[in-house]
Amino acid sequence: MLNDYETPISHAILKAQHRSLKGDFIPHKKTKVLLSNHAVVALGILTRKAKKTVGHIKVSEILNDQEQAYALLAQSVIYGDQELVSLALELNQTLQISPNLIQALAAYTKDLANAPESIQVLAKQQQAISLLGDHLFDLDLHLKVYREASDAFLATANENEQPFYLNLIRGFHPYWEKTHHILLQALESKANKEQATIIKTWENLDNAFLTRIEESLLAAYTSAIHTIDIPDQQVVLRTKIAKLILIKQRTFDKTSEGYRENISTIKKSFSSHDLLTYFLSVSREFHQLWLDAQFVQVTPKI
After folding, report:
1. Whether the Cβ atoms of residue 220 and residue 289 lie closer than 8 Å to each other
2. I want to staple 76 with a disulfide (CB 3.0 to 4.6 A). Which of 68, 88, 162, 200 is the partner?
3. Tens-place pLDDT, residues 159-204
4. 236-250: b or e for each residue (b if 16 or more CB lie within 10 Å)?
């Protein structure tokens, strides 16, 4: 039951703050949400537009706790108007917080609002789907997990309400399953595009432009591998792989984590185990040299 000072969304965010202290919520580890400047601005717009429905929310709290970010997005798509729902879905394309669940909640509650039910019934359905979403948040996507989360959700209802909750569980499952399949197809399509881009880059690598810093780094690597006893053909191949890594690294952060993300993206293009092993060997050789160069660039002169 909400008190006079709580909105549905602010209440949900308050619940997220105390999940680890209450037995009726599945505990999750706090995870800081890292956003680009553009996404931070978009999040600020969402919190401002949602203020009438949500109440005051600090952007910093959302950024520091993935559970609170989920609570804001979920309650926005459940209780918000069309503008608020669209904004939440658009922002979550960057946030990627349980995207299948957020999209399923949006689609399901939209259909609920279009059904010929009373305002009281709709409010009860919205509250119930919000609670079910809390149990499904941050879980793996398969039928067993849905059943387990649904059982936990059903256990929170009294005996008289269980038929209502059970119908909602059955009604929501197709939405949850559908968005899961759509996201899998999108991820597969994205992976295929990334692979095609990498192959095209490799084919045109000899003519690819490098900055002065990149040229210097590549020359240093080539010089280093000349000191070990390997055939000239392998020197050329290793240098070409290092050049590919350098070019693809431009779209990733200049950190060890960013480097690993780059390598993970490139390695998906290798179907041969031997070639993949060779590529990973070069990536490990090149990493320390690349990392040292990043350190030199950011170290202030004394």
Report:
1. yes
2. 88
3. 888 899 999 999 888 888 776 555 555 555 555 566 666 667 777 7
4. eebbebbbbbbbbbe
Token digits of residue 9: 């969304």
pTM to 2 decimals?
0.50
- From residue 288, alpha-carbon distances to 133, 233, 291 in Å are 44, 23, 5
DSSP for the chain, written as a single string: ---TT--HHHHHHHHHHTGGG-TTS------PPP--HHHHHHHHHHHHHTHHHH----HHHHHH-HHHHHHHHHHHHHHS-HHHHHHHHHHHHHH-SSHHHHHHHHHHHHHHHHSS--HHHHHHHHHHHHHHHHHHTT---SHHHHHHHHHHHHTTS-TTTHHHHHHHHHHHHHHHHHHHHHHHHHHHHHHHHHHHHHHHHHHTGGG----HHHHHHHHHHHHHHHTS---HHHHHHHHHHHHHHHHHHTTS-SSHHHHHHHHHHHHTT---HHHHHHHHHHHHHHHHHHHHHHHHHHSPP-
Q: Could you write out the three-class secondary structure of 126-146?
A: HHHHHHHHHHHCCCCCCHHHH
In terms of phi and psi (left: phi > 0; alpha: psi -120 to 50; beta: otherwise), the region of 9 is alpha
**Residue in this structure with the two tokens 């917080």, named with its chain if needed:** 97
